[in-house]
């Protein structure tokens, strides 16, 4: 049986968080909200807990987990050394939606890092997450709390859909604020490298470190260049129906999607600005282009809804832009298995 317990961020019930912490310390799993997506937590320093996480998610065990901490001292204890860049990034973005890759020491089992000598570490800002980490022993390994391959969960209900009966407890803190997973910055390379784009953009990282780049494996169309974060190579977030992203001037995009919508049960991902232009189809307005965070925070929920609606094909408008648009497009492209239609040359 999976217990779902509502927690009020402004007035947290410490007894519940203590109980959740006990589950973690005794080797069990608890799902909890963070500002990015819901996480599936287990004790990151115990291989057996990590094994349970992989099993509950149905995730390949070569895909490493992120260890969540609540203060810098805990980070210092599990890595070989803390480079200056790590202190700078932590100062700028922690607690918050940024994960660093550093060299691990012997305290971190290979069962948590998928056999790698490096470890991913993040200090989330959600007060529920921070308190759970403290109550649970200080090192909570947590991937997104979805079944492997499905969109990451942005509500406790999403977690319940995927993991009911498989874990003892879900802490329900309502809908998350960002809705896309953290930015991953690899500090074990000569040049700090973003392995997964997120709310913290390349510009923001460069402003702090002077120099930083995006992993070529993420942007390359060349299938011989692989992304460095093992998780980025899997097809992910994929809805059951075939999803294509339509690019080009907005008028052409709209008329192309409307033509396709004549051909079968069609899902359409659009924005406030264009919603009224689609007369037919299962139309989901993901947010407004005036506020990219509104798009980020609803994207995964929209992808999940299409599965319930049972559409045959899905067309999405494109969200090209630097900053958060980079992360939105990265997730959308993965969900689409990189299928794009360019309609620029159509009349
Ligand atoms: O926002 C987030 O980061 C959420 C919340 C729960 O904190 N967590 C999350 O975890 O997204 P997960 O497991 O779904 O994604 C972790 C990503 C994977 O792509 C994995 O391959 C990569 O981080 N990763 C973890 N450790 C790594 C390492 N040592 N080297 C390279 N990539 C690593
Ligand atoms: Mg994930």
Automatic annotation (TrEMBL):
Family membership: Belongs to the SUA5 family.
EC code: 2.7.7.87
Reactions catalysed, as given in the entry: L-threonine + hydrogencarbonate + ATP = L-threonylcarbamoyladenylate + diphosphate + H2O
Residue span, YrdC-like domain: 14-200
Keyword ATP-binding listed: yes
Protein name per the record: Threonylcarbamoyl-AMP synthase
Location in or out of the cell: Cytoplasm
Record has Acetylation as a keyword: no
Functional note: Required for the formation of a threonylcarbamoyl group on adenosine at position 37 (t(6)A37) in tRNAs that read codons beginning with adenine.
PROSITE patterns: YRDC
InterPro entries according to UniProt: DHBP_synth_RibB-like_a/b_dom, Sua5-like_dom, Sua5/YwlC_C, Sua5_C, T(6)A37_SUA5, TC-AMP_synthase_SUA5
Molecular-function annotations in GO: L-threonylcarbamoyladenylate synthase
Enzyme class: transferase
One Pfam family this sequence matches: Sua5_yciO_yrdC
NCBIfam families per record: L-threonylcarbamoyladenylate synthase (TIGR00057)
